[in-house]
Structures are given as structure tokens and as C-alpha cells.
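Anyone up for a design puzzle?
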């Protein structure tokens, strides 16, 4: 049962009708207070890319905690922060080699927007306009919320800077067609031309909170070309997609582009310890020598670049590489998409889409999605509801057997809620308890 003293984020104030309290995680499963094990189709907070209780990540945290938990990077450096920033420089393309360490994806966006806007002031050519997706989401701090056009991100406060929000020309399903792809690219071109040259474009490679929307191939490349034409900085939000989630190391790898600024979090530390990062070029960093007060970036947090989090992040990169998790995400995601494809025949299903281990089943109504999510939970599977969408975002360590179980369980949940007329399928099995074989 949820504690009466805890205020849950992004949730109604009233206690949930179907409370769940989890007490343990092992591999790709979690257990509740009643002893029921669930296959984790949400990856914790969409960030447990290496699964739960991974011994190498626990060992890295314990080892660093015993050496030095943290020290303020304003006053001193430490090897853990130096190591992870060096490894990010080697991992990212082009001149992306200067990294600011923060605690979360929201903070990474906050820093990235500040860097982008202040860069233009530093070089003596002020710009303040930003172009982004209307259905994008970049975090819950003030600057991050201001970017989004989603209804629940609106603050009602005065605009902090001009934002041109580009809407999809049609549905999430049609966005993958050639016609909509051309129309969407044209809308970005119109946004660039609609005012002074933009300071930055801030985009996700896949619109996560906006509904698990898969963007058309080549769109990021077209946006990169527009940025080059107008001298605009390209900021790619890899908070959700980064470190293998989409079946490539970074979401922008699908289009082969190199951003000017990259934001990262979630998978960077697999959720074991909070960490976020903003990486940019040396040229952008060096422009801050012209900043009038500090001759540097006036931004930071007490625990930014926390030594334990940085040490875990380096261990995550090892696990992702040595266990082949990027390729695994591509393989398992393709299987899930294929297995769930028949749901398109269901009258209450609008679309089935995915990229890597992000698979979205869009329904006709949030009530349908809610019923499916609860039905899946009753069968031992946790998946995410995002409006009218059911989203499957499991750890990248998902096995072949677990992939089959996930697909079978979710199909059974959809069968219960919106089975096509005349379609008869076997009754689903219930969630397993501690002493049941898993």
C-alpha cells in the first residue's frame, strides 16, 4: 500500500485505485509485498537498461562508495567523473567531447538550453528562438517544460523565450509514411523561416512521452541540414533513447547525424544512481570565456557528477558493450513488434509501432489502454500507459523466452479487453507467486 505521507509525482492526489508496492528486483523481474513476481515491461523508470540487481553495477557502486562518495566538482575533480567524461568523448561522434555532469534528464535539458542561448550572446550575435516538437517532452524544470506543447506541461507563466512548436501533420501512424515525412520536414523548414534564425532546435529521436511516436527515417538528417543552413545549434535529447534503447547506441545514429549538443540520462547509469549529462563541442565551451561575470557557465548542482553515479555509469558502458545490449534491443524489439502486429486487426487498436525496445500499441481511448495495463498486471506483466497508448519498455537484457512471455501476456490482456468478435483464444495464466517456477 502506498504510504499516506508520500506525494507521488505526475499522479492524482487521491490514492491509486490499484496500489502496488515493489520490494525486490532481480534481472528483468520485480516482486511486490504480496510475493508476486512481475516481468518488468517498464524498466523501472524507463531507465533500468541493465536490469535489476546487476552484480557489476552493485560492485561498482560499493567500491566507489568506500573510496569517495562525492566531492564538489567546483572545488576538486575525482577519477570517476574524469573517467566517464573521457569515455563519453570517445563514444560520441565528431567534436562532441566536453561534458557537464548533472543529476537528471530535466537538469540536462535545463543546462543545454542555457548553453545554447548563452552561446549566441557569448559570440556577440544574440539569438533566443527555439524550434521543437509540439508533442515533445524534455523534462519538468522550468526551461524544459516551456519547450513542450503537451497539455500537462503548461505552466501558465510568462514565456521565458520564443518557442516554435512543430506539430505532426497527421496521426502518429501516418507520420511514418513518405507523404507525412515530407510534410513534417516542410513544417520544420517553415518554422526556421518564420522569424529570426533560431538559436537551437531541440528534438527527441523518438517522441517518448508524446506517445511513443516513431519519426520518419531521415528526418533528423533534414533538420541537421536546416541547422547548417541557418547556423542553428542542433540539440538532440537522448535522455530516453541513449545507450541502446532504440537498437542503436544513440537515437541519432539511425540517421547518421552529429548534433552540436546531446543530453543524456536514464540509461547512462541504468537507474542505479541518479545521473545526467550534457555533451557539447570545445568551440561552444570555449565561447563561455566571454561570459561577463564568471567567464564560464553559471549553472550546476550540489551532487552533479556524483562520484558513485559516475563510477556506475562507466560500469554500465562495460555491461552494454560486453553483453551486446544494443544488438539485443534491436533483435528483441523486432520480435516484439512482429508478435504484437496482429493487434492491428482489433477494432480498438489504432497503431502498433516501435524502434528497438520501445514498442507502442495505440488504442482508441485512454480507458482501453488503462484496462489493458491492469489486465497485463493481473497476468504478471508491468507495462506503461501513456494516454491512449500502451508502451512496452523493458530492460535491454530481455531474453528470448521473456520476449515470448511478454508478447503472449500482452496479447492475452488485449484479448480480454477488446477481442475481435468471433475470435476465440485460450484463457491466460495468472501472475506467479514466489514459490512458482518462473
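Challenge accepted. My sequence:
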Amino acid at each position: 500500500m502506498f504510504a499516506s505521507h508520500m506525494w507521488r509525482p505526475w499522479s492524482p492526489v487521491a490514492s491509486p485505485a490499484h496500489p502496488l508496492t515493489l520490494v525486490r528486483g532481480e534481472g528483468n523481474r520485480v516482486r511486490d509485498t504480496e510475493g508476486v513476481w512481475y516481468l518488468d515491461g517498464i524498466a523501472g523508470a524507463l531507465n533500468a537498461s541493465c536490469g535489476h540487481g546487476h552484480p557489476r553495477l552493485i560492485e561498482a557502486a560499493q567500491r566507489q562508495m568506500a573510496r569517495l562518495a562525492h566531492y564538489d566538482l567546483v572545488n576538486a575533480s575525482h577519477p570517476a567523473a574524469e573517467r566517464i567524461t573521457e569515455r563519453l568523448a570517445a563514444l560520441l561522434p565528431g567534436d562532441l567531447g566536453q561534458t557537464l555532469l548533472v543529476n537528471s534528464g530535466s537538469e540536462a535539458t535545463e543546462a543545454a538550453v542555457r548553453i545554447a542561448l548563452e552561446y549566441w550572446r557569448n559570440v556577440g550575435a544574440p539569438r533566443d528562438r527555439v524550434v521543437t516538437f509540439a508533442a515533445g517532452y524534455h523534462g519538468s524544470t522550468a526551461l524544459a517544460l516551456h519547450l513542450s506543447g503537451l497539455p500537462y506541461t503548461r505552466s501558465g507563466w510568462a514565456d521565458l523565450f520564443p518557442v516554435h512548436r512543430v506539430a505532426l501533420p497527421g496521426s502518429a501512424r501516418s507520420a511514418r509514411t513518405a507523404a507525412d515525412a515530407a510534410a513534417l520536414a516542410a513544417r520544420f523548414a517553415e518554422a526556421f523561416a518564420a522569424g529570426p534564425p533560431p538559436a537551437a532546435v531541440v528534438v527527441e529521436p523518438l517522441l517518448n512521452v508524446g506517445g511513443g511516436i516513431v519519426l520518419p527515417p531521415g528526418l533528423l538528417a533534414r533538420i541537421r541540414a536546416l541547422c547548417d543552413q541557418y547556423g542553428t545549434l542542433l540539440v538532440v535529447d537522448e535522455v530516453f533513447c541513449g545507450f541502446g534503447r532504440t537498437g542503436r547506441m544513440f537515437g541519432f545514429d539511425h540517421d547518421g547525424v552529429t548534433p552540436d549538443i546531446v543530453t543524456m540520462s536514464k540509461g547512462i547509469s541504468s537507474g542505479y544512481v541518479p545521473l545526467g549529462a550534457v555533451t557539447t563541442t570545445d568551440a561552444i565551451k570555449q565561447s563561455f570565456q566571454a561570459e561577463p561575470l564568471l567567464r564560464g557557465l553559471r549553472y550546476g548542482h550540489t551532487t552533479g557528477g556524483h562520484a558513485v553515479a559516475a563510477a556506475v555509469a562507466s560500469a554500465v558502458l562495460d555491461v552494454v558493450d560486453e553483453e551486446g545490449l544494443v544488438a539485443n534491443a534491436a533483435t528483441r524489439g523486432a520480435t516484439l513488434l512482429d508478435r504484437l502486429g496482429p493487434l492491428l486487426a482489433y477494432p480498438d487498436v489504432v497503431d502498433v509501432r516501435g524502434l528497438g525496445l520501445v514498442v507502442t500499441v495505440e488504442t482508441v481511448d485512454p480507458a482501453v489502454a488503462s484496462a489493458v495495463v491492469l489486465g497485463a498486471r493481473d497476468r504478471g506483466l508491468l507495462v506503461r500507459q501513456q494516454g491512449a497508448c500502451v508502451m512496452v519498455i523493458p530492460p535491454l537484457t530481455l531474453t528470448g523466452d521473456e520476449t515470448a512471455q511478454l508478447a503472449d501476456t500482452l496479447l492475452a490482456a488485449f484479448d480480454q479487453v477488446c477481442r475481435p468478435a468471433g475470435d476465440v483464444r485460450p484463457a491466460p495464466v495468472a501472475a506467479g507467486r514466489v514459490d512458482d517456477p518462473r
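A detail worth pointing out: The chain has two domains: 22-53+324-418, 56-322.
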